[in-house]
Amino acid sequence: MFADAIKPAVEKPTAIIVAVKELGEADLLVFFLDQWGTLRRGVAKNASKSKKRFLNCLEPLSVVSLSYSQGRTGLLLTEAQLQMSFQVFREDPVVMGVGNLMEELIISFLPENDPHEESFSLTLQALNHISERKLDPIFVTILWILRMMTLTGYTPLFDRCAICGTDLDRKKRWVWQLEPLRCVCADHYLTGSFKWEWDVEVLMFLQAVRTMPLDHIWRLRLSSVKLLVLFRNVCRWCEFVLQREVKSYRWLERVMAK
Ligand SMILES: [Zn+2]
User: N or C end of the chain: smaller count of CB under 10 Å?
Assistant: First the structure.
């Protein structure tokens, strides 16, 4: 008779919906990034049949207020209200591909239930910048990936040659290698694979994305000829770290080649 009084507390924080999968006939499994930068999963019971509680809310990359409670086997989503949705991700194939890439990389790189505080504001700022269309979506994605890889501890320092120790500003031509992972001045003969020659502009850019306050990284600039090369390098790096193809990146490559 006291069942109502001991119901688990319902929370209502802001969240970015990351991915939604069907679970059985009527339930949906929802991955979301909460406002504290934690990737979580919860089940929206009966959500595919009774859409009212989640009206237009369970679209990937929507920003919502999400109510949920701790159930016996995991989080149960009870209700959501839409705060922001980004139409641009449904209009333009390249932007759509960028959105899919962000979803796939969040699921791949952020460990569940382990907060990476800046990841929420980083993703929200990236979505807003893409939606405003003032910055190239590929450029925003490069910034987002590099910063996300820094947050999760994957980005190397890029501050001096891994072989001779020469500082970044003392040489113009550099090589970034994935296997083994290192950044060296172009004077050395390198064995191994996945080598790309980068000039000092690219390396300074990488340094800046890693070290600047988040709000400022969107003001960085990079010559447009280097943008696409860097985008490919960065995505191949993600694949190298994950040891598998990033499907959304491969799809985006095909779209961009048309
Ligand atoms: Zn060197």
Answer: N
| Digit-coded pLDDT (tens) for 206-258 | 989 999 999 999 999 999 889 999 999 999 999 999 999 999 999 999 999 98
Query: What CATH topology corresponds to 89-156+191-257?
Result: de novo design (two linked rop proteins) (1.20.1440)
Of 184, 252, 197, 258, the C-alpha closest to 230 is: 197
pLDDT surpassing 80 at residue 1: no
Cβ neighbours around 116 below 10 Å, total: 19
In 10 A of CB 174, how many CB atoms? 21
How many A from CA of 225 to the centre of ligand 1? 26
Give residue limits of the domains in the chain. 3-84, 89-156+191-257
pLDDT the model gives residue 3: 41
The rounded Å distance from CA 40 to ligand 1 centre is 43
Mean per-residue pLDDT of the chain = 90
CA of 160 to the centre of ligand 1 (A): 8
**Cα–Cα–Cα angle for 128, 133, 139, nearest 5°?**
85
> Ligand 1: distance of its center to the CA of 49 in Å?
62
pLDDT surpasses 60 at 7? no
Establish whether the linkage from the previous residue to 8 is cis, with ω within 30° of 0.
no
In the CATH hierarchy, which fold is given to the domain comprising 3-84? Answer: OB fold (Dihydrolipoamide Acetyltransferase, E2P) (2.40.50)
Within a 10 A sphere around the Cβ of 197, how many other Cβ atoms? 11
- Measure the CA–CA gap between 57 and 66, rounded to whole angstroms: 9
